[in-house]
Amino acid sequence: MSMETTAWMQLQNVMNAHESRRPLARATLRRIAVFARPHRRRIIQFVLLGVVTALLAVATPVLAGRVVDAIVSGGEESTVVRLAVLIAVIALAEAALGLLARWLSATLGEGLILDLRTTVFDHVQRMPVAFFTRTRTGALVSRLNNDVIGAQRAFSNTLSGVVSNVVTVLLTLAVMLTLSWQITLLSLVLLPVFVVPARWMGSRMARLQREAADLNAAMGTRMTERFSAPGATLVKLFGRPGEESTEFAVRARRVRDIGVRTAMAQSAFITALTLVSALALALVYGLGGWFALRGTLEPGAIVALALLLTRLYAPLTSLAGARVEVMTALVSFERVFEVLYLPPLIEEKPDARAVPDGPVAVEFDQVRFAYPAADKVSLASLEEVVSLDTRGGADVLHGISFRAEPGWTVALVGSSGAGKSTIASLLPRLYDTDEGAVRLGGVDVRDLSARSLRETLGMVTQDGHLFHESVRANLLLARPEATDDDLWDVLRRARLEALVRSLPDGLDTIVGERGYRLSGGERQRMTIARLLLARQRVVILDEATAHLDNTSEAAVQEALAEALEGRTAVVIAHRLSTVRAADLILVVEEGRIVERGTHDQLVARDGRYAELYRTQFKEPLEVDAVA
């Protein structure tokens, strides 16, 4: 490796040093050891290969010096040829070992990335909904990309580099000292001139890099917000294109200016260090030549010393920044483990049961619940805040009790923020109760297996979320083994068959990010079709018809009536017209059930339900008129 290349690598390491100037917990090292254990055989091979490569790197300059001595002394031609052939063989061996090392590095590094990514991905999927509501998605994705790759470097680059550089430095110094201890010591005097500027320049470069990164991140956020479907719509409706363009151009120009300053600083730094390396070689040739003319040093030794010097500064400079490199890689591990070892708030019991067969009753028994504090479910680094809020949440549910018999439809109505969606979220264990119990089929949901809970209970949420995939893929989330006939059947029942058949690729049409290629009502009906396909015994509808017009709502209500027949349903609705036929209506206010009964009973009671009804329909409250 040339001095110029080494100088560049050293500069990059120091520029990144600001990321790793903090103490590293021993627990991180232990976790790394555990994670690396399956790869230990390949790690050992990788390290040994680095040692062998270092030995060969020192051998070539020594042999080159002997060739020069043989030529100057008028030695036999065969000797020169043998030495040249040996140098060629070493070069071929270095090339072959370099390829082998690259293969080992790639397989080791990519294998580690695979293990880390899949482990973190699986762990994140087990986190509660509260984790995702607080976490910035970009920060979380970065852990699975940038930090995992940074951790991989600890094995594929840093580990082998440190070992081979240490061996190279020790062997090179030993050989150089045997050739000329005076030249060796004088050459080392120039080493600080080679290393110290990198640290000084590195801090300056790091500031420029951070500023550029912040500006690029700001531009990226701005583009992401404005290039999304709702963002672009908002800009077209209320934005000012001229001002938007001007503000973006200002930031882009600042990035350009920083790029120019960075390029010039890098060029000046590399030029200076290249000059230092040239001066070091001049020292070897000048002082070595003086010794040779006086007969105290062989000409071949001068050549060997010059070649060894070029191979000495490179590993010495790398080792000078090894701590930074190691700590940077270990910090990446720490950031990955920070997510990986964040305990899930909801765990499945080892002896978890299945929901009993047959129709399923839903029961809430004196349920109290408060949303967990941030420090229980999140990380400050993922929220991009200095510290998490450690305060405990206030109760949002206070002694909720009701029972939905098998096949019943229970409706939850009340003001926004009263706790209706919170009640619904406790059934599929998106959260766990603080007190009391939620039961399905007489079994506490905390005693049920996640698989059984998923197969038993389905939910349609308010936003009707769809993935940026095909219609088919979005539906098959509910039942992967479903046939095309099954898909068309549920689309027909959700009143979407004609729409999907009219799409250019039918079931294989991509619906767009969050389903934005469909209208709000179409997205909601797509999620209802997914629910119909799942055929679960308990159904939660959280404002399932919120985005439908009157015609579509009537059609979907017919499909839901068919799909919910014989199933237990919990329906959250602001439109009271959709819950008149419910077997039980619960009026929820401030986390408490303040009224319960059928539509007729509640209207006759002339309480909170009647008030909500009066507000929506502006008509007299006569039981016969609304029954």
Question: Topology of this protein?
Answer:
Blueprint: H1 3-15, H2 26-36, H3 40-72, H4 77-125, H5 129-134, H6 137-179, H7 181-189, H8 191-227, H9 229-238, H10 241-293, H11 299-320, H12 322-340, E1 362-370, H13 374-377, H14 380-383, E2 395-404, E3 409-414, H15 420-426, E4 435-440, E5 443-444, H16 450-456, E6 457-460, H17 471-476, H18 484-493, H19 497-502, H20 520-534, E7 538-542, H21 550-563, E8 568-572, E9 584-589, E10 592-597, H22 599-605, H23 608-617, H24 623-626
Parallel strand pairs: 3-8, 3-9, 6-7, 7-8
Antiparallel strand pairs: 1-2, 1-4, 4-5, 9-10
Helix pairs in contact: 1-8, 1-10, 1-11, 2-12, 3-4, 3-6, 3-11, 4-6, 4-12, 6-7, 6-11, 6-12, 8-9, 8-10, 10-11, 18-20, 20-21, 22-23
What does this structure look like?
With about 625 residues, the chain is an alpha/beta fold. The protein has two domains: about 5-340, Up-down Bundle (ABC transporter transmembrane region fold), CATH 1.20.1560.10; about 360-625, Rossmann fold. It contains 24 helices and ten strands. Strands 6-7-8-3-9-10 form a six-stranded mixed beta sheet, sandwiched between helices. Strands 2-1-4-5 form a four-stranded antiparallel beta sheet, with helices on one face. A hairpin with a 2-residue loop joins strand 4 and strand 5 (about 445). Helix 1 (about 5-15) packs parallel to helix 11 and helix 18 (about 485-495) crosses helix 20 (about 520-535). The N and C termini lie far apart (about 85 Å).
Mean pLDDT: 78
Indicate the low-confidence ranges by residue numbers: 14-22, 621-627
The major beta sheet can be summarized as: 6 strands, mixed
Q: Please, what is the CATH homologous superfamily of the largest domain? A: ABC transporter type 1, transmembrane domain
Count of separate DSSP helical elements: 24
**DSSP strand content:** 5-15%
What is CATH's topology name of the largest domain? ABC transporter transmembrane region fold
Please give the order of strands in the largest beta sheet. Answer: 6-7-8-3-9-10
| Span between termini | 87 Å
CATH architecture of the largest domain: Up-down Bundle
The CATH C-level name of the largest domain is: Mainly Alpha
What is the SS-derived class? alpha/beta
Give the tally of β-strands: 10
State the domain count. 2
